[in-house]
């Protein structure tokens, strides 16, 4: 399957020695919902802004359908909602929708108005008088209305209430199914991502540390719990490569890349969640996945 969003050697330097992102390569096919996760300052927003064409790479390239995103002809293929919402405070919600229609002939006016009415957003209220969560809802509705191939959302759930969060995720899923677009969304709430995302990009200190299909990552790792004496080699437990480990005086808990090789019976083997995998790699910035290429596979 051809990649709709791909990056090669992508990097952004903000100051002489300060790189926000470095040497980032990945390929995402159409129809994927990608979780972009990582610690504060790890480069997620930088990657999203580069993918949206809002800033130029210092090195490398990020493309939508093969077109570098800083080019004008890529702009209509990408919709982006950043942490600061791109809305005019003096416009009413209806005027914002009209603005979308005027600036983009392909804009889905009817669908956007329907969505906003369904969310109970007053169309005649000015943006400045909306709550933070309502502003987010409007910005996301406008982004989805663009009918872009790639939708980029930077922490979209951060100021939504507990009912609005799953509703937004459901809406994203429906949009992906209907239009086969690709969604890349950053979030710190891993449990919410598990239900909707099929792929993971994990950033660590400005680098892409892990990428892959979430099902593969979960199937390819295990948590081992055993006596600390069984953990003699920090790099391996038997044939299984160690990602990260925590030890107490008596017990070791180790995240490993799992193969079907036999294991010392002193270890109890547990399946992992997405949270286990993400936390394990975040604790161990030098760990990479040996067995698979660092790509979101087709
Ligand atoms: N405009 C800027 N000028 C200088 N440095 C910047 C700028 N924007 C980001 N950085 C730096 O680049 C690095 C990556 O920042 P970025 O905002 O991409 O991280 P993030 O993963 O989105 O963080 P968070 O989860 O806190 O939103 C950080 O060290 C940050 O300080």
Automatic annotation (TrEMBL):
Domain ABC transporter span(s) in chain numbering: 5-230
Annotated GO MF terms: ATP binding
SUPFAM superfamilies the record matches: P-loop containing nucleoside triphosphate hydrolases (SSF52540)
The keyword Protein transport is annotated on this UniProt entry: no
Annotated PROSITE patterns: ABC_TRANSPORTER_2 (PS50893)
Domain of life: Bacteria
InterPro entries membership: AAA+_ATPase, ABC_transporter-like_ATP-bd, ABC_Transporter_VariousFunc, P-loop_NTPase
Keywords (A to Z) from UniProt: ATP-binding, Nucleotide-binding, Transport
Identification of the protein by name: ABC transporter ATP-binding protein
Naturally occurring in which organism (per UniProt): Cryptosporangium minutisporangium
Lineage start: Bacteria, Bacillati, Actinomycetota, Actinomycetes, Cryptosporangiales
């Amino acid at each position: 399957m051809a990649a709709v969003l791909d990056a090669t050697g992508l990097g952004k330097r903000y100051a002489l020695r300060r790189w926000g992102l470095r040497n980032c390569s990945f390929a995402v096919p159409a129809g994927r919902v990608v979780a972009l996760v990582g610690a504060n300052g790890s480069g997620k927003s930088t990657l999203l802004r580069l993918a949206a064409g809002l800033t130029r790479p210092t090195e490398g390239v990020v493309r939508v359908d093969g077109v570098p995103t800083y080019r004008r002809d890529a702009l209509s293929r990408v919709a982006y909602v950043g942490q600061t919402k791109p809305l005019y405070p003096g416009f009413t919600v209806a005027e914002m929708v009209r603005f979308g229609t005027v600036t983009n002939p392909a804009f889905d006016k009817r669908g956007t108005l329907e969505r906003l009415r369904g969310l109970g957003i007053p169309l005649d209220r000015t943006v400045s008088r909306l709550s933070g969560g309502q502003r987010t809802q409007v910005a996301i509705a406008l982004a989805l209305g663009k009918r872009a191939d790639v939708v980029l959302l930077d922490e979209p759930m951060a100021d939504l209430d507990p009912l609005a969060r799953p509703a937004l995720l459901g809406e994203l899923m429906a949009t992906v199914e209907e239009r086969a677009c690709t969604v890349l969304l950053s979030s710190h709430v891993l449990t919410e991502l598990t239900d909707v995302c099929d792929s993971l990009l994990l950033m660590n200190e400005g680098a892409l540390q892990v990428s892959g299909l979430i099902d593969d990552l979960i199937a390819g790792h295990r948590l081992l719990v055993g006596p600390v004496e069984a953990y003699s080699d920090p790099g391996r437990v038997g044939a299984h490569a160690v990602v990260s480990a925590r030890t107490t005086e008596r017990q070791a808990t180790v995240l490993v890349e799992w193969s079907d090789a036999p294991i010392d019976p002193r270890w109890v083997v547990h399946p992992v969640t997405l949270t286990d995998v993400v936390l394990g790699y975040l604790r161990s910035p030098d760990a990479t996945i040996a067995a698979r290429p660092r790509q979101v596979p087709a």
